[in-house]
Fold this sequence. Notes:
By secondary structure, the protein is an alpha/beta fold. The chain has helices at 8-17, 24-34, 53-66, 95-106, 116-128, 165-168, 172-180, 194-201, 203-206, 220-223, 226-234, 239-254, 285-298, 316-323, 343-352, 395-408; strands at residues 43-48, 71-74, 86-88, 133-137, 154-157, 186-189, 214-217, 271-274, 277-281, 304-309, 327-333, 357-360, 375-376, 389-393.
Amino acid sequence: MSYQHKPVYEYMDSKAVEYAPFDYRRARNIFHKLQKFLNLNTYNIHIIGTNGKGSTGRFIAQSLWESKHSVLHFTSPHLFEFRERFYLNNDIISLESLEIAHTFLQQFDFIREASYFEYATFLALVLGQTCDFLIMEAGVGGEYDSTSILTYHITIFTRIGMDHKEMLGDSIQSIASTKLRAAQGVIFTHFQNDEVLALLQQLHVIAPQKRPYAIHYLNPKDRMTQVVQEYAKKYALPLFLQENLALANLVVSYLNIPLLTNMLCLRGRCEIIRDNIIIDVGHNEMAASVILAEAKRYFNNEKFILIYNSYKEKEIEKILHIFKKSIIEVILFQVDNPRIIDFAEIQLILYRLHIPHRLFNPNETKGLDPLSKNLIEYKDFFLESRYNYVVFGSFSLVESFLRWFYDSIR
């Protein structure tokens, strides 16, 4: 039978502009109908947290692949294109394979109900159903996240902090509780603050239906093991990636496989693209503090220029305050995304903080107020070798910056 449907990228673009009210039952209801058409016999690993999910999952996925296991790592969001969310057997999924999975799902009328992220989750299940291992990175939350529809053998909690307050609550306790209630199987946890550790100790109360638990806590000495330190030295890993590597090593040791030996295949995580330019995807205070510490170490405590932009709902003023004493100025890099904060609004924040700033439009003056006295109009005035730069902010910012950067040096 032939099914008429939009190509996967066009379909996902249409999903992105739809408004799908959150319904924690929807993904489970769809999965209940879809499950009988899948052949899911995978060993499932769930990664939940605020920061470090992508790199921790990729360290594990690459370790599994190097040990001759087939593995799909589902992560989000993406930098350049949608298929980056599906890392299958040591490479990003091909567009052809993604279209095949999309065509399979489109034969079911009930799949139309799925939101953007829910549909991406179901694509991951189709793509990974023949693998030995399935590594699923949660989206915003935990308990009601669409990735929580599976039964998991291992749950990994990366660092949990303040983020997505509009959906998860305005306290670390409410945010952590939502995430921790998704716990299944054997649990591995990153370093956590005292409030989260207290909740972990009460996990049998928070999620009584998932007992019993075995919880493995990351310890500072785990970062100092020989295999972690050798890898960190070989690839000059910053401290926070060393910690994520150590957490991944706890998991792969439990699975009785060795840690990866090849370089981490994941863009935008404290990536040095030139001696004086660091790029990092981050959108909360915890991530800002981490990249600031790494920038101070890498640049020998010299001040740097922060290239920044952010989505509207983030704690922008708190993030900029963290950087304030270590930066020369902020360059607001224009990003074409409806979720990005208005320039006027972020400028008011910068004025309140008394942080010097300029605007940069990668398309020169297009879309910006022509009366702006701070507008940078020519690329020649940007990225001077005598300054150090940190590009930090949303995935959209890092994507836009990298596209502009690589176009400008051709």
